[in-house]
Every structure is written in structure tokens, then in C-alpha cells.
Write a structure and sequence with these properties.
elongated, 8-stranded parallel β-sheet, 362 residues, 2 domains, Lyase, Ornithine Decarboxylase, Chain A, domain 1
């Protein structure tokens, strides 16, 4: 059976490891989008609430609704809410990020039609990532609209494009400078203190001077920080395991897999594993880019990854059909395998399909 083992004690370790790096006044937004980066969003969110996290964040309203139905009551920020989801956001008391004049006007309409006042929102500015966010030219417009809006502004923020880059980084410094100007304009427009955030997990490590009021931690909670030295203070919470379905003796010159993707250079053995690109173990991990651990030894993927199966060369590894295989875990880190295949740990983790059974380890 292929299963993903999720260790909540390691999640707790990561939470406190990250918390210790923050300024004492800085609060934490725990990012649990995409099923908590491919794990289990409900139990992960529940554990974070128990640990004392102040807020959670998801990508879309449907994810936030699932958490409400699971029983999560603390504030849930919705990063990328399409206007079609605004009614559901209000119904489930979620906190949307407003990022454009269109989204602003539509949410004003929805809040007013539901006869709500002081509805919690977050405002996002685009300072250079060029994804979503108000333009820096829109600051005065936002400030003017706030004077008669039915909103309570919870936070104002931006997203830096490359917080893991070595310092000094000109692009990051330019973004920070732009956001400082935005902060100044908002502070001057109101009497009460506004709350701001800039940083994701990498930023927590690389820019401690800019922790501000909040930080957004996602991948760090799950054990990765986009830098080898930063990773040392974290523990990956997930271990993906499976078992050998069958073993074949392969002779020199024989091929393996679709399109004869791999040709044996010697007499060897291969093991067939019940996981494939339908489960999120995608084709880029084929032909030696990916590997698994069997009895503590690396077995490289041979040939093309299939939809439901993958083949690995076991050669002289002592194992039999039914033996346990670690696909991702200790000795087979998601970030290292992803880098070898030209991608990132976020993709490998979040792409794990629903066929993979999730098991909690408390």
C-alpha cells in the first residue's frame, strides 16, 4: 500500500523553531493551502490552532470552507478569492484579500447587501512579483475608498519575489522600499495603527529586520526553507512509503518501460512500485532523475514514469517483493529530489494525489 505518513510532532517542532526566530511581537499566519501542501489540511490546521497560531491562510474559498466545516474557528485569510466566491466567503466568515478595484467594488457590494459592517479584509499590493495586487499607483485610491467602506482592515501586505536569494538583492530591496512608501501613506491616513507583512518562510530566515507585524509561513511548517543551512532547523513532516509489487531479472540490452525508455547496460534487477504520475510522482523523475530508498540504499528510477507504476533498479540491494520502500522521507528528501528533476519541493509535495492514503502520526 502507498501511504503518506504525517508526523504532527515534527509539525510542532517546526512551528516552535520558526516562532523562536520571530520578533516577540510578530504574529504568524500559517499557510495550509493545497491540502496543507499535500498532507491533510484539517488535522494540520487543528494542530496549529492548538499550538497557538494566530491566523491561517488558504488560496481559495473552498479550502477555507472545508476548514470551517472541520471546526476551525480562528481567522482564515483567503489569498486569491475570485469575485464569484464572495458570497460564500461572507457566509463562512472568511477574510478575503482584496487586490484590485474590481474586487474591491464587488466586495463592497456583497458586504453591503448582506448588511455587514466592519467586515475583516486584507489588502495586497503588487510591488514587483507581478502576480495579483493593487498597483502602487492605487494607494491613494484605496485610502480614499477606506474612508467610507464597510471594512475593517486586518493587514496590508505585499509578496516579495525572491526572498531566498543571497543578500544584498537589488530586486528585493526595491520591493521593500516600495512597500515602505505604501506603509507610510497608510499610516498617515488613519489614527489607529495598521498591521503589515512582507515575508514568507525564506524571508523569515533571510530578512529578520522586516518581520513587521505578521509573517506568512507555509513550506517551513512542513520542514523546508529553500536553503540547505536553513533546513537544518526544520524537520520534514511527511514520509511517503510504498511496497514492491514485483521484481524482474533484466538481461544486458533489455529495455524497461514505455518507449523503451531505459536500456540495461548489464544484467540487473528492477522493482515495480505502485505509484506513478497520477499520484503526483511525475514524469520528470524518470530516467535517473528520481530515486527511492530500499533497505537504506538508493534505487534510481529507470525508464519513463507510468501513470500508476514506476520502475527502479535494485541491482544487488537485498530485498523481496512486498518490501517497504521510502519514496520521500529520511534519506530521500523532497527538496533534493525535486531539485534534481528541475522543480521544487512545493510541487512534489502538493501534487500528491487522492489515491495516496494519509496516516497521522501523533
Amino acid at each position: 500500500m502507498t501511504l503518506l505518513e504525517i508526523d504532527l510532532k515534527k509539525l510542532e517542532y517546526n512551528y516552535f523553531s520558526l516562532r523562536k526566530k520571530l520578533n516577540p511581537r510578530t504574529k504568524m499566519i500559517g499557510v495550509v493551502k493545497s491540502n496543507a501542501y499535500g498532507s491533510l489540511s484539517g488535522p494540520i490546521a487543528q494542530k496549529l490552532v492548538e499550538l497557538g497560531i494566530e491566523s491561517l491562510a488558504v488560496a481559495y474559498a473552498s479550502e477555507g470552507i472545508q476548514l470551517r466545516e472541520y471546526g476551525i474557528q480562528i481567522p482564515i485569510l483567503v489569498f486569491y478569492p475570485p469575485i464569484e466566491s464572495f458570497k460564500e466567503i461572507i457566509l463562512h466568515n472568511l477574510e478575503p484579500v482584496l487586490y484590485s478595484k474590481r474586487s474591491w467594488k464587488e466586495f463592497v457590494h456583497q458586504v453591503s447587501s448582506h448588511k455587514k459592517t466592519a467586515y475583516p479584509i486584507h489588502i495586497k499590493y503588487n510591488t514587483g512579483l507581478n502576480r495579483i495586487g493593487f498597483s502602487t499607483q492605487d494607494v491613494e485610491w484605496v485610502i480614499e475608498e477606506l474612508k467610507n467602506s464597510p471594512f475593517e482592515v486586518k493587514t496590508i501586505y505585499t509578496h516579495l519575489a525572491q526572498t531566498e536569494s543571497p543578500k544584498p538583492d537589488i530586486k528585493t530591496e526595491n520591493q521593500i522600499s516600495l512597500f515602505k512608501e505604501i506603509m507610510q501613506k497608510h499610516d498617515q491616513s488613519v489614527k489607529q495603527k495598521q498591521e503589515y507583512h512582507l515575508l514568507n518562510t525564506s524571508g523569515v530566515f533571510n530578512y529578520p529586520e522586516y518581520h513587521l507585524d505578521w509573517v506568512r509561513v507555509g513550506i517551513g511548517l512542513y520542514g523546508f526553507a529553500n536553503h540547505r543551512s536553513w533546513n537544518e532547523s526544520l524537520q520534514p513532516i511527511a514520509q511517503l512509503k510504498t511496497n514492491i509489487t514485483q521484481i524482474h531479472e533484466i538481461k544486458t540490452g533489455e529495455t524497461v518501460g514505455y518507449n523503451s525508455g531505459w536500456k540495461a547496460a548489464k544484467n540487473t534487477r528492477i522493482a515495480i512500485l505502485p505509484i506513478g504520475h497520477a499520484d503526483g510522482f511525475s514524469r520528470p523523475y524518470g530516467n535517473g532523475k528520481g530515486w527511492v530508498l530500499i533497505n537504506g540504499r538508493k534505487a534510481p528510477v529507470v525508464g519513463n514514469v507510468c501513470m500508476d507504476m514506476v520502475m527502479v533498479e535494485i541491482d544487488d540491494i537485498n530485498c523481496a517483493e512486498g518490501a517497504e520502500v521510502i519514496v520521500i522521507g529520511e534519506g530521500s528528501r523532497a527538496d533534493e529530489m525535486a531539485e534534481n528533476a528541475g522543480t521544487i519541493s512545493y510541487e512534489l509535495l502538493s501534487a500528491m494525489g487522492n489515491r495516496i492514503k494519509r496516516v497521522l502520526k501523533k
